[in-house]
Structure formats: structure tokens, C-alpha cells
Amino acid sequence: MVEWVRATGLGANSQEDFPPYVADVYVPDLELVIEVDGPLHLKKSDKKRDLHLKTKYGVDTWRIPLKKMSKNYKAEFTAELQKIIKRKIDAAT
């Protein structure tokens, strides 16, 4: 997934530390964490984590179900990332 983000021209880091958490992917230019949620993710814990990342570090979280992650998802992923980029630009203006 990091490669998919980088293919758009954005930088991305995998396994970025946001103590006490570690994000799957972090896109610094968008202040965006991308989390791939497997079957063991708990919505209540995820909500708490997302709020912590937003309030302490100022980053938003985009959650993607693991079952979506395949080569076939790349086009949809890129389209959604473009929407996020547009929303961020619109919010900054």
C-alpha cells in the first residue's frame, strides 16, 4: 500500500510511531494515517485510537478493511485517495 501512495507522488512511511500506537501507513503531506483493519479490529478501540491520533498528533485516519486489499483494489484506493487530497485542499482554502 505504501507503494500505491507513493505512485501518486506523495510520500508515505510504513509502521510510523504515534506513541502508544504504530500506524500501518502515514502520509505526512496529508497528515493521514491509513489503517488496514483485519478481523480482530474492535470498533470501540479503533475509535479511541483515531481520536487519540487526531487530538494529540493532528492526523486523520482512513480505515480500509483487509478483505478489500488486493491488486484489484488499487484503482479504487487511488480514486479514494484523490478525494481525500481534494477535501484537504478545499479545507485549507
Short note summarizing the structure:
The chain contains three helices and four strands, in the order H-E-E-E-H-E-H. By secondary structure, the chain is an alpha+beta fold. It has one domain (about 1-90): Endonuclease, Chain A (3-Layer(aba) Sandwich).
Polypeptide structure, described:
The mean pLDDT is 92. The chain has a single domain (2-92), classed as Endonuclease, Chain A (3-Layer(aba) Sandwich). The protein contains 3 helices and 4 strands. By secondary structure, it is of the alpha+beta class. The chain has a 4-stranded mixed sheet with strand order 1-2-3-4, with helices on one face. The chain has helices at 2-7, 43-57, 74-92; strands at residues 13-18, 21-27, 32-37, 60-65. Strand 3 (32-37), helix 2 (43-57) and strand 4 form a beta-alpha-beta unit. It is globular.
CATH superfamily: VSR Endonuclease
SS field, number of helical segments: 3
The count of DSSP E runs of length 2 or more, i.e. the number of strands, is 4
What's the SSE pattern? HEEEHEH
CATH topological fold name: Endonuclease, Chain A
Gap between N and C termini, in Å? 29 Å
Oligomer: single chain
Q: What is the strand content?
A: 25-35%
Q: What number of structural domains do the residues give? A: 1
Largest sheet: 4 strands, mixed
Gyration radius (Cα, Å) is 13 Å
**Uncertain spans:** none
The CATH first-level class comes to: Alpha Beta
Write the CATH architecture name: 3-Layer(aba) Sandwich
Shape: globular
Pairing-aware structural class of the strands and helices? alpha+beta
**What is the typical, i.e. mean, pLDDT?**
92
Order of the strands making up the biggest sheet: 1-2-3-4
User: How much helix is in the residues?
Assistant: 40-55%
